[in-house]
Amino acid sequence: xxxxxxxxxxxxxxxxxxxxxxxxxxxxxxxxxxxxxxxxxxxxxxxxxxxxxxxxxxxxxxxxxxxxxxxxxxxx
Length: 76
What we know:
By secondary structure, this protein is of the alpha+beta class. The protein is 39% helix and 28% strand. It contains two helices and four strands, in the order E-E-H-E-E-H. The protein is globular.
């Protein structure tokens, strides 16, 4: 579930292994590139953490972030 804190949408994902986590990140990267809206994220083995905010709007959560979050959820 996405949470909104510090003007960012945040979600942590956990996968079976590194390959699944990396495949997920690749799918997210393709969607983000299409939207020209790129997340801040980290990956450690099977975990991926994502923070979304819109830099052009002053680093706050906008509809663009919510739209990307929805797309990310559909990739699971």
